[in-house]
């Protein structure tokens, strides 16, 4: 009885560690993508300043800011879904 209970605890612990590792992997990829997106956003802002020095509008800046936060999400969601689907197929 003790062996069966110990195996169950160990299996649930291993499963929770796998979930934690997967979540950490997705979060790491999101922040890595957001770093590159923010570099693109800063370059876009500097280009905007060079072209329209005195006519930069608030909505243009907010478009860059919102784009820098949402573009990594638009990329990481399909990646995560593809990884989950691939792992489910390999588990069968």
- By DSSP, the count of extended strands is 0
Q: What integer is the average pLDDT?
A: 83
Q: Let me know the largest β-sheet.
A: none
Q: Pairing-aware structural class of the strands and helices? A: mainly alpha
End-to-end separation: 29 Å
Shape: elongated
Run of helices and strands: HH
Report strand %: under 5%
- Measured as a percent range, the helix fraction is over 70%
SS field, number of helical segments:
2
Rg measurement, Å: 22 Å
Could you say how many structural domains there are in total?
A: 1
Low-confidence stretches: none
Describe this structure in words.
The chain is an all-alpha fold. The chain has one domain. The chain contains two helices and no strands. Helix 1 runs antiparallel to helix 2. The longest helix has 50 residues. It is elongated. The two termini are 29 Å apart.
């Amino acid at each position: 009885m003790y062996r069966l209970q110990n195996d169950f605890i160990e299996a649930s612990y291993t499963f929770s560690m796998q979930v934690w590792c997967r979540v950490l992997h997705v979060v790491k990829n999101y922040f890595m993508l957001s770093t590159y997106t923010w570099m693109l956003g800063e370059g876009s802002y500097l280009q905007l300043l060079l072209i329209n020095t005195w006519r930069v509008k608030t909505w243009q800046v907010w478009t860059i800011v919102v784009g820098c936060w949402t573009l990594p999400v638009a990329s990481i969601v399909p990646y995560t879904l593809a990884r989950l689907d691939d792992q489910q197929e390999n588990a069968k």
